[in-house]
Each structure stands twice: as structure tokens, then as C-alpha cells.
Structures
1.
Amino acid sequence: MNVPLGTFSLGQDQPFRLIAGPCQIESRDHAFFMAEALSTLCRELGIDLIYKSSFDKANRTSLRAARGVGIVEGLKILADIRAHFSIPVLTDVHAPEQCAPVAEAVDVLQIPAFLCRQTDLLIAAGKTGKVVNVKKGQFLAPYDMKHIVEKLESTGNHRILLCERGTCFGYGMLINDMRALPIMAQTGYPVVFDATHSVQQPGGLGHATGGQREFVAPLARAAVATGVSALFIETHQTPDTAPSDGPTMIPLADMRALLEPLIGIDRLVKQGSQN
Amino acid sequence: MNVPLGTFSLGQDQPFRLIAGPCQIESRDHAFFMAEALSTLCRELGIDLIYKSSFDKANRTSLRAARGVGIVEGLKILADIRAHFSIPVLTDVHAPEQCAPVAEAVDVLQIPAFLCRQTDLLIAAGKTGKVVNVKKGQFLAPYDMKHIVEKLESTGNHRILLCERGTCFGYGMLINDMRALPIMAQTGYPVVFDATHSVQQPGGLGHATGGQREFVAPLARAAVATGVSALFIETHQTPDTAPSDGPTMIPLADMRALLEPLIGIDRLVKQGSQN
Amino acid sequence: MNVPLGTFSLGQDQPFRLIAGPCQIESRDHAFFMAEALSTLCRELGIDLIYKSSFDKANRTSLRAARGVGIVEGLKILADIRAHFSIPVLTDVHAPEQCAPVAEAVDVLQIPAFLCRQTDLLIAAGKTGKVVNVKKGQFLAPYDMKHIVEKLESTGNHRILLCERGTCFGYGMLINDMRALPIMAQTGYPVVFDATHSVQQPGGLGHATGGQREFVAPLARAAVATGVSALFIETHQTPDTAPSDGPTMIPLADMRALLEPLIGIDRLVKQGSQN
Amino acid sequence: MNVPLGTFSLGQDQPFRLIAGPCQIESRDHAFFMAEALSTLCRELGIDLIYKSSFDKANRTSLRAARGVGIVEGLKILADIRAHFSIPVLTDVHAPEQCAPVAEAVDVLQIPAFLCRQTDLLIAAGKTGKVVNVKKGQFLAPYDMKHIVEKLESTGNHRILLCERGTCFGYGMLINDMRALPIMAQTGYPVVFDATHSVQQPGGLGHATGGQREFVAPLARAAVATGVSALFIETHQTPDTAPSDGPTMIPLADMRALLEPLIGIDRLVKQGSQN
């Protein structure tokens, strides 16, 4: 099943789409800077882009961590990016009452992994009619995503994306089961691979989540070879100074080198499928 | 650190307190029936009881599963049980705005495992000044509970309980790391062992969570021998017909046989401590 | 089923027996020193002792680690300890051809966890007619131990012990599933809990296995409360200078304080059973 | 580092080599039939082949499972296949004393995963001077393979291959951590991905190991995209009637369709490297 989104659609037989952006909306200027850079890069590489950024980090490890610009300011920035660059925009929602206002500003509502079983949030997101990207909880088996799909479908919304971002493996470590990608694809909905959160090390920095940025590239290649509809990659011009997810974000300057082989593998794997 | 709660307190050197009740508030009559039976049993056994029941099951596996009587009716019933039986009452909260009204009706607010990192919910619960029982997320290492404690302490509330209810172990299976109990106790706060959710098998029934009721007794004995401040045990007169958590709840008629050896082990383990 | 061993027997309704000793046979003098100390302690506490020590460490993490005194010298020492102290002796075997000579010197042959599926080793051990203690592989589910039992039973030997020593949990970490104890007991054979290897951290020291000695006591209490036939505890007068398993062994001077509460819990849990 | 083997070599910048064959040597005729079919296929596809088959299955789940033709007959068959087809041959060893005779008949000695920490076996295998392929134990972290490499290197043998075949993930399930491939490659030695044992479900059939053959293809694509020196794939003309590993082996008739996309991905990923 293909999920239409503006001028393109997401589907298991379509070229992968790129969901990318900095973890947080840091400021209007920073958001425009990042969207400009990513738009240009994707145009050059011939990839369709969905711009991603969060207005609130609602479940930081530590209370002292930065939470973001807030919903009012954040949605204004995202709406302006959508209008200015003519690209679809994605952000995450944390409470049912956020869904309607967020849906006015963005094209894709994302359900965070920890919240993927919260029925009211799923229903509220589904009811907006927008595309909903659900991250598989780190505590969930891929074949259990069918129940989440059913909750969303009950709203009449069939524009659903299912996203792998790692599964619990002992303490302080996630693992990617590449079988999860074809298993989730059995629902018929497009599958997304989140290459940067997958290398998180929960609690790895003591006061914050750590990460293994060096494994983003091999895992992204593996996922694309397995077959995905979209890649989710957080990026930042200087990740190590970013207010969140620094250890996992890819330096903006490295994005081209990361993406080029993925495009080749994707083409090869989907050869023979409709394009 | 001891956490006072009505006529008693919870502490690692106190006899274990029992948090018990049916998973859901099914009706006023059923709630009173259960509270009556548990009060009588605990009086006979010399255990302090905290009555537990949920007004809403917000994260059921399947959309078709029963969600409960709702917050308005549920809180009325819980408040009446508290008044009628003179026992503290516990229920779980799912959104920040629920915390204040819930705090008027009950003595302990419980943070569900999936939501244990949601900062706003923790803060709102902490601000009520009520005792807050946080279930350790199935995706969290026990030593990372210190960050959750810090979020709660930031509200000035130090009446905190930390609850073990199983950790992800492969797909569709939880495991109890008994080391988690002493590790969480290092925070200084009382530790609770949830003996019935610990034997859940997520997704185990296809459309719902399964369970291994036969392991509740050995795991409860193990936890008490390790040292806990409270046991959390869901119970029902006929679990197999209950609207939720049937595969894990203990038949009411079996509670006495389950509890008696636990009391003995608890006394032995805490010998020499203040009583 | 009770497994007779010299003047006592092991069984789920018998008081727990203690399998204890230093990881390696370091020298004749050291072995006699340890056996003397443990014999005296167990006599005072009223526990039956099986003396444990290895003549060869065949699967050390690193090549540079000490392997032991060897089979010829080791078996002589073990046989002399058995004769001198009149206690049963246990050691581990690593190859089928070791079983017959080892069986002449000791009372219990132990199958190491990594080797628990090696059919020829199990058969050779079984054929000696001696008690065989099989450690559950860290890679094995407890319910799969029934196949190992069957391999041993095929030799006509029904003097089998099944030992829990931790299960893989992510990288570099073991976890004890206390459900494994009743599950393995369903075979009808006595179950042993290895409290010191259970707290190993494979590869935790970089060049060697690390450990969390502080969790031996709570895990041993948990296991005894669940119900076991024997406890396996490695001990040493100065663990931190021992040639192997230093991070997990219990200082000899701490053994009494470790064992005393276990005896109380064991009595309580087995009350009503034959003694 | 490249590991020479007959007319080719294995290396992270070389095209992947194929290690393939039926799990067991069933008979001379069957072995020749399989070797003929695989030789022809690999010649047509332009892949270098290493023929794999076992003379003994030393650690079957159940005692009643078939063990194979034995070492004497097995080695004769393997030597004859090597001579007849002019291809290198691989088989696994289970005891130190097998290494020398096996080394006379084959080109690659394989250390089974359960035995990967048995020092004597590693040393004996290394001393033969033959290529040694070590399967990473299901209980081992990939970064701990460096200790195994060191044991082998101590014999002066640097013709080492390191093979990923899955890691414990809960009970009865393996998972492939694709990060393990680049981590093991940091040793400098070629890395092999075993695509068929990786989908085993230990104990999954009750009396035997089950498997998920449908995931061999996506996992193999993922591994090749990550970057490997060789693929290990067991195959059989009718896997479901094979005496071992039926649930995971690939039907011989499906091998071409499995391999073709892998060749494309491999070329793409290694573009720019020496060929």
C-alpha cells in the first residue's frame, strides 16, 4: 500500500524517502538553515525529503535537559518551513490534545516509541487524517505492531507508517532486528528505518542517552538492503553541541557520503518493482 | 527513607505492605466486594493493605479490549472505598491533567511503566504531594531510575516508591532481574515488587497479553527474600473472566496461601531491623 | 527424585546442600586449607558440604590466564581431600576421555555450561555412574534442559543435578531468571543455584570476566526462597588475588554471614516437606 | 588482512566468497551431487565456492537426532570432493585430537559456536596452519572475539575467519546484530555471515531446533550491505527431509535467486576497493 504525501508517496516499491532534520527546533534561524541545506542536498541527490524536528522533548533522561521551543513557537516555524521550501514536515506528538493543532501545521504526526501503545494518542492522531508515523516501542515485538495499526485504522485513516528504531537488548543498549522490517511490512504499510535513534545507548552518558554514531552508516545500508520505504536520520551542523541526541546525530557535512551508497543499494533491491 | 502513608509507612526495614486489588474497577459492587475480602484477609494476616484498581486501561494491546468505568465514576468509587474501609487507595494516572483530580480521591498515584520517562506526568504527579509509585519501564535499567527520582524530587515531593515489574527479554517475554531490587533501593526510596505484571507475556495471546500465573508465587518469594518494602499483586475472584490481566491475576481464594510464606520470609530477612 | 551422595542425598524437599570451594586447585596446601575451613564451617552450621575445585580452566577468556595444576596432580589432591575430610568432592570435565579417570577420584562430575549440549561428553559422564551436575548453558532456555536430561538418562544414570548459573542478557551481562529453578525442577531432578558464576560479567574486565560480588547474597536468598536442592558458591580467603573468578568469589571470612539467613529461608520454604 | 585460500583469498575488500553445502555429509553420492550443483552454480555466477559439510553433529538438541557418517568416512568424502572439483573444503572440529587428521583432508577448520572459548581446541586448530573459521558463540559479544583471535595467533597462524551466526535474544530465539560485522572486522580478519544458522530457533520444534528460512534472504542482503568477506549458507535439494537443520537450509533450487542480488549489493558496497 502506498501512502501519498504531497507530490510523492511512500511505498515498499518506491525509492526510499528521507525523513531528516535536527532532533530539536533550536530556533527559527537554525531550522531554516537546516531545511535549506537538506532541501538542496536532496534535490541534488534526487531524493524526496520530509523535514523532521521536535518542538518538545517530553521524555528526556534527565530533568535538566533542554526541552525545546514549545508547541506554539515550534508549529509556527514548521508551518513556515513547509510553505517556504514546499516540503512536507514531520513532528512528534505527546498528548491527544496536541494532535489537532499539530495537524494544522505539519504533514506527518509521529508517535514516539514509548507512547506507541497509548490508545487515546493513536486515535487522536489518526482522526486528524494526516499521515501517522508510529515508532515501534523498544519493548515491542515487530509482529505486535498489527494491533497499533488496527487502532489507527479504526479512525478511517490508512495513511500509516511503521518505524523501526531499535529493541531492548540487555541494559543500556538497543539492537536492530532486521527481520522487523519485513515483518512490519506484512501489515501492508510502508516501513521506515530510524538509523540514528537505533544507535542510542539509553542512559549511556550517566545523565543522558549516549550513542554510537559510527554504526549509523552500516545499519542504514543493512536496512535499505532489506527493503524500506523511508529512512529517518537526524542531522546537525555540529552534533556535539546540539541540545539533544548529539551522540547519534550525523554531521550535516557527512550526509551526502552517507546517502549516496544507500541510493544505489535501494535501486538495486527494488529493481523490477514499479518506480 | 520511610514513606508515611496514613497509619503506617513504607520502608526497606518495615514489614512488606500489600498493594492489591483487581486490575480494573469493574463496578461499585465489585470494587466493594474485593476491598472487603482483601481488608478482612489482611487484618487476619496482620498485613497493611493499599487497595489498587484502575479507572482506565489506556494502553491495552488491542482496541477491542475493555477500558474501564472512566475517571469520574472510578474516582468516586475509590474515594468511597477509602472512606468506608479506612484504607489507603492507589490508582494509575496517564496524563498530567488527571493528577490533581485523582489526588483528591486517592492516596497513591501510580505512573505506568510505559510512561515512566514522561517528564510532565512525573512533575504533575509529584506536585500533588501524594505518594507516587513509579513502575520501572520494561525498557529501563534499574540504575536509570535515579533520573526519574530526580524529576519527582524537583517538585519537593519525597514520597516516592519505585516498582519492579519486569524487563524486556527477547520478544513477548519479561524477566525479573532480582538485582534490580537492591539497585533501586540505593536511591533510598522504598522498593515495590509487582508480582503479577512481572509474569506477563506481552502479545502472548495474539490479541492480548498472556501470562504465567504459576510463577507469581516463586517470584514473590524471591523478591521478598531479596528485600522489598511492598508487594503489588492483582487479584480477582475469577481471573479468567476478568476484563483485563486475567492470565496473571491471582484467584482471591489463593491469596492467603500465597501470602503466608511471604510473611515468614520477610520477617526472617528483616530480623534485626527496626519493626 | 532424591539423588543419594554418600551419607546424604540431594532433593527438592531436602535442606539445601552446599557445593563450595575455590575456583581452581591452586596447590595441595591451599586445597586442604580451604577444605578444612569449609568443613568446619558447615559442621558448625549443620549443612552438608560438597567440596568443589577445578584442575583445569579450559575456556578462560584470555590465553594468558592461569589454567590450573592439571588433571594428574589435581585428581590426586581431590581424592586425598575426599579421604581426609570424608566429604564428597566435585570437579568439572571438559572432554569425554577425562570422565573415567575423574570418576575414580571424585563423587560428582560437572559439565561446564558452554559444553552442556556436547553429546559425547554427557554420555561419557553419565556412563561413569557418578552424580552428574550439568550447568545450564547461558544460551539455553530452562525448559530445554529436558533434552540434556534425556541424553544422560540414556546411559542408565539417574543421578542428575541441574544447575542455574545465569542466562545471556545483552552483551557482557548475565541475568538470573528465577523461573528457571521451578522449570528445571519439573524434570524431577534436584536443582542447584550457582550464586557466584551468576554474577559474572563476561568480558567485563577487558581481558577477563568481571563480576558483581555484591549481588551474590541477594540472589542466593532469592534462589533459596524459590526452592533449590543445593547452592554452589565459590570462595577464597583473598578472592582479589585468586588466579580466576576473583571478582565473583566470596571471601571465606564472609561465608558464615552469607549462609546463616539462607538456612532460615530454606527451612521456612520447605516446612511441611520431609526433612 | 587477506586470507589466501587456494586460488583466491578472503578479505573485506574482496568480493564475497560463498561457503555452502548441506549441513551433514549424508553419503558420498549426496555430497558429490551437492558439490556438483554448487560448483556449477558458482561458476555461472562468478563466485568462489568453499564446500561445507559436517561429518559429525556433536551437539544435537536431542539424543535421537542423526549424528552423521563419522570422521573416517566423512574425511574421505571431503578429500575426494576437494580433489574432484578443485574447490576448497570446510568442516567443523569438536575436539583437539580431531584437528590434525581433519587438516589433512580439508582446507578450512571450523570451530563451532558453543566451543569458541575452548582454548585447547583453538590451539590445536591453529597449529594445523589451515584456515580457521571461528563462529562467534551465541553468548559472546562481538568485541570479545579479539581474545579468541589472540589464542589462535599464539600458534603463529594468522589465517583466521570470524563468523557471525546470531546472538541469544530471550529464549529460543537468536538475533543478528549487524554492528557485529564491522566490530569483528576491526580485528583485521575477514568476517563471514552465516545466514542460515542465524535464523535458527533453538528448541523451537520441542525436540529439535526450528528456524525461519524466510528471513535468510533479507538478513543476507543486510549483511552484504554492511560488508562481509564471505557468506555461509547451508543448502539441500529438499531441506524438509534433511537429517539436520531442515528448517533453516535453503532449497538448492532457490540458491541462484538468493545469490544474484547479493552479488550486486556486494559490488556496489565495495566499489572503489581493490578487486
2.
Amino acid sequence: MATILLTGATGYIASHTWLALQAAGFEVVGVDDFSNSSPVVLERLHELGGRPPVFERADVCDAAAMEGVFQRHRIDATVHFAAFKAVGESTAKPLEYYANNLGGLLNVCRTMRRHGCTRFVFSSSATVYGDPESLPIREDARLTATNPYGQTKLVGEQILRDLGAADPAWQTACLRYFNPVGAHESGRIGEDPRGTPNNLMPYVTQVAVGRREFLQVFGDDYPTPDGTGVRDYIHVCDLADGHVAALRRLLDAPGSFTVNLGTGRGHSVLEVVTAFARASGRPVPYRIVPRRPGDVAACWADPSQAQSLLGWQARHGLERMCTDSWRWQQNNPRGFEA
Amino acid sequence: MATILLTGATGYIASHTWLALQAAGFEVVGVDDFSNSSPVVLERLHELGGRPPVFERADVCDAAAMEGVFQRHRIDATVHFAAFKAVGESTAKPLEYYANNLGGLLNVCRTMRRHGCTRFVFSSSATVYGDPESLPIREDARLTATNPYGQTKLVGEQILRDLGAADPAWQTACLRYFNPVGAHESGRIGEDPRGTPNNLMPYVTQVAVGRREFLQVFGDDYPTPDGTGVRDYIHVCDLADGHVAALRRLLDAPGSFTVNLGTGRGHSVLEVVTAFARASGRPVPYRIVPRRPGDVAACWADPSQAQSLLGWQARHGLERMCTDSWRWQQNNPRGFEA
């Protein structure tokens, strides 16, 4: 069975993908530098996977370190999760975002090429659609970026297109994630943001578990049914399965592709709050505060291309997303901290 | 007087800018790795400048090397010329282009920041206008890239905009070069492309000097007066003066800016051939061959912004460009080769 390298392997989406790949019979080699994740994830993966994870601590921007990884392991394909991902931080630290996100991508690709490994899955994002012109969003929509984080995703995709045009041996998949939430049903791994969460669900769960007093809802005057922002939330385990499907396709059939990974359904902030309160039995006090600059009113995917190309579709609904997020947060009120 | 770091300092435009900066009273520190230039340039700069050039051999992507340069010299501003620049090659080697051009830019900026140096001139290109919607081209025209080289210029500009937005201490100038030709009037330095020239003028001069049998004219069915492509050729010494003007502005006044450096006049391939044959007294046999993919029909600058902002405008016309190109080629039939 094929061996898959996961970069940024102990992050939120990557750790769930690791389990999904193992369940599907793949061998996995994980790499992370723990710059934004915890080594405790490896213990949990051992526990859930039934065997010690194959892991190397390394920075994807470190050429010698990545060369070593490829010398020690025969890698068939890479899923490149490793990247900085906070929009606001990217505006404050653009050099760090460009250097880490593009430098890491380029270094991994160049190392792969030296080892004849040319199958690559890239963690892209719905952020490349900017403020969408129409909904649902198809993959051929206009692309734009409104901050350095988004630029690194946009340029990352472009690099992979240029790479495929230069050398058809490269088969690449750009997966445009919508809004991942939820957690593994075991409640042993999940999203564990450092500092103030940038995303809605971890904020909601931290309020419910008593770590924060109330939720800030950024704007209630958007042109949406209840005035709050609408997003396409997708269960992280569905997202993980999307990676398995993408890898199967890359390994079995020629060609590169770009697909949305979303459910095709939009939920407003207040819908999520209500669903979460119901699922957890806890109140989620919130306050309406001004809009955040750069936030769009509404965004949801047309996921039909992933369905037709990969035979993949999201299976879990909002209730399950909330139940699993809550189980993770309740069992790990301070995340992976001891 | 201020000390200016030139990266890619022994290249064509940089070497002419070096002399112009010295003539204007600046101290210059040059850095190059000779990956696409000759150390002989330094001897010529010594001869023309009347003193040994201050130079360090270093790769701009090498963090330790650039740190050393900034430790040994107190730099007030950087002109970042260092980059790969062949459009066709960029399509074949996208990873190398992104890694070198963006990695170099990011490494230089991060090194500068550590040393409190935040004035930066970036070698951009008219290539960021893609196929222009109207002529002459103003700086606020739509930007696009049609190849990895162009992408690195487009993204490089974006990185600098993001950097300025994140930290107003940064003052940056993006100089969008049109088509540099000509050479220093001494005939001692000039353009010396390796392999087959990608640009018109060195091809023409190599034909005239007998290194090549005939000129290939790529297409004579463009919607231009004589059917051949029209470009805004600018004398490299005018371009060098544009850098001096940009640096003066960055050092004297707050703010960042982006300006075209062109003459505002377009000349067709056949006009250049005719002018060159007249200036050199040599015939320039040519053959019409098919269009090159990606070439646009016509492109010339609106240079008024550089005039109003920097008080700069190009002084030399096509005849002088041809005379100086020819003097350089005739005196150095094999460029800087011994």
C-alpha cells in the first residue's frame, strides 16, 4: 500500500486525515515542527491508531531536514498541510507568512522531485474566492486574495499549476477547504487553537466549557436571513475522507485537479450557536460586535465536482458537528495541554 | 552620503545603476553570486568608477550570507535586482523561479528588518501588465501574469504592499521596467546574455557582429503599423538614473510608490532593425518566424507618474540606444568573456 507523507501532521485537519488514511490502509509518515500544534497529538494517534505513529520532527522550510525525511522513507505522495493559517496575523506578519507558506511548499516540492515523487495534495482554502460573485461557489469562480494568508494559498495553487505545465509527471490536487469543524468521534483529538480562537466553533466550545465569558458575533447586519455571516461548515472527518479520496484518485488516474471540499449548505453564526447549545445542553451567551474587516457575508460551496471526480461527499450535518466538537472540548477543556 | 546595497549587482541594469549611484555621490555595496553574470564586470566598474568596487559574493537566498553583508556594512537602502529573468526558462523551471525570486526577496527583506533598514527598491517589470487593455499603460492598469517569471514580479510587488501595510516604517518603490537596451557610452559594460538572447537588441547586435547568421522576427502579422511587435525601449542609462531618482525620493520623503520606467514611445521590431543597421553601418539580415506564445502585440508606458513623482524622464532616443549597444558589442564581441 502507498506511503503518504503528511506535513503539518499534528495539526487539526492533518491529524484526522492521518487516522482516515490509516483506516483506508495507507502507510503514513508525519512531519511537524510543533510550531502550532502539540506533541500530545502523537500519543492520541498511537492510542486511536493502535500503533506508534511514524513521525519526524522537522520544519518544512528546512531543506536538509526534508531531504533526510525522503532518504529515510519511500514516499509515494505528499499531503502538504504545513502552513501558517491566521488571517489577522498574516496581515501583521506578511514576510513570515510568505516565507513559511511558500518557502515550505517550494522546499517540499523540490525535495520530492529529487526523489521522483510527484504526487501532491495541497491544502488550499475557500479564501481564494474572496468575496464571491455568486453562490454556491464553483471551482471556476474568479479567484482573489484579500490578505497575505489568502495570497499564499492563491500563489501556492498557481505554483502547482505551473509545475504541472512544466512537467506532466506532476499530478497535483488543490483542495479548497470550506469551514472545518467537529472532531474525531472518540473525543481524543480535535481543534486546539493557541490563544484567542480565530474561528467560530472553537470559540463557541470555549464559551460553553467556561473558558470564555461570551461569544463575540462579528456583525448582525449582513444581507443574510438573520443578519449574521453564513459559512459552509464541514465536519473534519468528512474533510479527512476527502483527502483519502483525492489521494486514491491521484495514485490511480492521470491528471491534476482542484475541488471544493464543502457540504454545499450554509449556516449562519446564530444557527451554529443554537445548534451547539442544543447539542451540548449549555448556554452560549453572545454579544453582537462590529463586523471584522475582510469578512464576507456568505460563502458556501458547490461540492458537485468532488462528488463526480472523487466520488466524495460530506456525510455529517450540523448537529453531528456540534456533538463531536462538544465531546472533544468537554473531555479536553484545555485542549492538549496536560 | 547614503550607502546603497545592490543585489544582483553585476547584472546588466544593476551595473549601470552602480555607476549612476556613484556619480550621484552614493556609496554602493554590491552583492552577486555570478549565477548569471561575470566577475569581469567588477574590473570594468573599477576602471569606470575610479576606485575598487565594494563587493561581496553571495546568494541572496542564503540567510547567513546576507546577514553577514548587513553586519559588515551599514546599509541605508537596498535596490533588489537579483532575480532570474528568462520568461521561457521560467515556464520550464517554475520551482526554481519562485524559489529564487521570491525566496531572495523575502530573505533580503527579513535581513534588512533585523538591521532596521526599511527602504527598498524592487526591480519589477512591464510584464505585470500582461496583454494591456489600453495604451499607453498607466500604473493603475489591470495586473496579470502569463508565466512564472511574471508571477514572481506580481507577487513580489504584492509582498511589498503587504509589508508596507503591516509596518509603515517600510518605504518601498516598485519600478516597472519597460525594455532596457543600450549600454554605457564607454562601451565597457553592457548586456551580455548567456546562450541565445531572449531579447531583441542583444540578438540584433550579435547578428551585426557576426556571432549569429540572422535575426528571427517573431511574427509580422500583429495589429501594429508594420505587423511586428511594438515595445517601449529605454536606454539602460536612463533606467539607471531612474533608480537614482527613486532612491532620492525614498530617502527624502515618506511613502511608497510604483512607477513605470519607460520612454512613452513604442518602436516596432523592424524600426529597431532599421535604426540599428543605420547606427552600426552593418546589415541585419532577418527572417520572419511564427509568433512566440505569450508575446503581446504592443506595449508602451505612460511615464508621466515617474516625471511628476521623481522628476525623472528618459533622455535618450532610439538612435543613441543603437549606437551605444553597437559600441559595446563591437568592443566586446564575446561580452565579458576573456
